[in-house]
Design a protein that fits this description.
This protein is an alpha/beta fold and 279 residues long. Helix content is 47%, strand content 21%. The chain has a domain of 105 residues: ATPase, nucleotide binding domain (Nucleotidyltransferase, domain 5). It is built from twelve helices and ten strands.
């Protein structure tokens, strides 16, 4: 059996393949080694992944994960997986490489992730050759669900949002001003709280103020990421991630405003990864 995992900070998609055919798939909690302890991934493997493999022998694992941009983090995840699959060939790669593989396969282009976080790279058809650094939700992540959530929440807390948005958010969340600040500054993973606010944005996307925050977030991504790649105007630019997919009309508008011609948009990279690893 072959396992493909696409892991973001919020969710991980696991697909189980036998004889080049998908036999099952599951979703688990996401895992980012920058924010999570090893025990979280160990628990996921023991309680969810091992039972899903059943009696099948696992001989290959391809793991594409958020935060797997350093040798140290890749080693951590390899070590965790090898405890349960000690005879399997394990390949640990950055989720950005997974996105590029899924979107472009063996073609050249720019691959972009707009999900809980954001990232991008210039892909030569087999390798990442340029990567504008993604600095995480505290310093970057423009265009991501976290970034959109932060912009909207800031407007709400500073009373810059329209009254109907301000009141609707407080009523829907059931949180007080103090409780919101506690979630931001005391919770272990405040980026998930911010990212959840992007779902509130989706429900209220017809509101002009909300729509403007989303559009401005995509503008920031284009300016701080795409504009830094050579010849971006004539390069195939593709996107994956829930934010790119659900806000695709606004994303297309933002790209058009900046003279960018877009390629495909995938909700998740897994579709393209399955194609790559079964061809």
């Amino acid at each position: 059996m072959k396992i493909i995992a696409d892991s973001g900070s919020t969710k991980t998609s696991w697909v189980f393949i036998k004889n080049n055919k998908v036999i099952s798939s599951i979703h688990t909690l996401g895992f980012n080694p920058y924010y999570c302890d090893d025990e979280i991934l160990l628990e996921i493997i023991n309680n969810e992944i091992l039972p899903a493999t059943g009696s099948h022998y696992v001989d290959e694992i391809y793991y594409y994960g958020a935060g797997c941009s350093t040798e140290k983090n890749c080693f951590r995840i390899n070590n965790i997986l090898s405890r349960s699959f000690n005879n399997a060939i394990i390949s640990i790669n950055h989720d950005l490489e997974g996105a590029a593989t899924a979107l472009l396969q063996e073609r050249k282009g720019i691959a972009c992730i707009l999900g809980t976080g954001s990232n991008s790279c210039l892909w030569d058809g087999g390798n990442i050759i340029v990567n504008v650094p993604s600095l995480g939700y505290m310093l970057g992540d423009e265009g991501s669900g976290t970034y959109i959530g932060m912009k909207i929440l800031k407007g709400i807390l500073e009373n810059k949002a329209p009254d109907e948005i301000h009141d609707s958010f407080l009523e829907e969340s059931g949180l007080t001003f103090e409780e919101i600040l506690n979630k931001i500054y005391s919770d272990h993973q405040p980026n998930r709280f911010f990212a959840n606010i992007s779902m509130f944005a989706g429900k209220n996307i017809t509101n002009n103020w909300i729509r403007k925050q989303v559009l401005n977030s995509f503008d920031d991504f284009i300016i701080n990421q795409i504009f830094l790649y050579p010849n971006y105007e004539s390069t195939d630019i593709c996107f994956t991630g829930s934010v790119a997919y659900y806000f695709r009309e606004i994303l297309i508008e933002a790209c058009a405003n900046h003279g960018i011609s877009m390629g495909i948009i995938l909700k998740e990279p897994m579709e393209g990864l399955i194609k790559f690893h079964t061809s």
